Amino acid sequence: MELTIYIFAILYFTLIFSFFIGIVFLENAKNTKTNKISVIIAARNEEKHIADLLDSLMSQNYSQENYEIIVVDDRSEDNTAEIVRKYTSKNSNITLLHVKNESKLLLGKKGALDKGIRAAKHDILAFTDADCVPTNNWLGQINSHFTDDTDIVAGYSYIYYKNPFFKFLKNLERSSLFAVIAGSIGWNWGITITAGNMAYRKDLFHKVNGFGDIGKVRSGDDDLMIQKMGKFIRNMKFMFHPDSVIYANRNENASSQIQQETRRGSKWRYYPTAIKIMTLFIFIYYLIFIGCFLGFLFAKVSTNLFIIILFLKIIPEFLLLTLFLVKIKRLRLMWVFPIAELIYIPFYVFFGLKGTFGKYKWKE
Predict the structure, then answer these.
(1) CB 3.0-4.6 Å disulfide test: which of 47, 318, 327, 364 passes with 78?
(2) Per residue in 154-174, pLDDT tens?
(3) Do 208 and 341 sit in the same domain of this protein?
(4) pTM for the structure as a whole
(5) What is the residue range of 166's domain?
(6) How far is CA 305 from CA 157, 181, 287, in A?
(7) Which contacts (CB < 8 Å, 24+ apart) does range 299-306 have?
(8) CA torsion angle for 83, 40, 46, 155 (degrees, to 10)?
């Protein structure tokens, strides 16, 4: 039994450390020419946020002749469309499209994104969410990372919460996700990505038949899509520069957070086999770790065994997160690392089970 535990712990150490290596060896080549970019936003009931996003996009330090903005009003029941329409009357760079009824083949956000992508004039498609605000140099950073052989670019997003402690804790948890994104990109393996800050080539979207076989999955317009694109991707990049950061506003109430985390955990069944195996391994290892912790408390697991597997877990996680946060210049988030270590395993297990076997509501 102890041998099995050690094997799991060593494999986990190796997996997390491989993401650390991936970040170390990420390609730094920069593009020197100016690309034309289509920015696509799916907006559903975002009257509180859409103006801030459009103001930021219209203030980009990027020539307006080199980018367009496409906002797709996704069945909004508020004044989202009216607000966007005021912007279109003043600036020809902004296009407003509408989705009036949800397609049975493209559920949720995918229908709006598909409409925006098919209307896009340019090959490079940049995506963010309607409740986000990019820096004024966001498009410039995307452009600088899109060398001729680059197909996908990902970036970091930071969420504002009123509660200071929750803000640090949640953003550290998200940083662990982005560290995995960056680390896997270093190996040119598209494990996951986030819709709030990403870009890819339009021809790659068409090459995999768009949302096609994932259209009936209500979420997954980001991670399931990059997984579909995997075998066609030449190169991927991750943007670490502070100018590439997206700032997001999120609903702080507990119900909204639970729905969001359940949605994130609901897509496991649709993952490719290799990613399913990896995430299932992590899930099983976390259950083993919980068992060892309880065994240690009640003197059924030796102190040496528990200390060894504890260090095999903490060391690679600490190194990975520290490296990532140094590169994005947010190392101050690490002060909540010890607390996050206590919370994250039960958090991951709970929402993994809830997402796989439960239901959620998400702007339906």
Answers:
(1) 47
(2) 999 999 888 888 889 889 999
(3) no
(4) 0.91
(5) 27-258
(6) 38, 31, 16
(7) 305/2, 305/5, 305/6
(8) -130
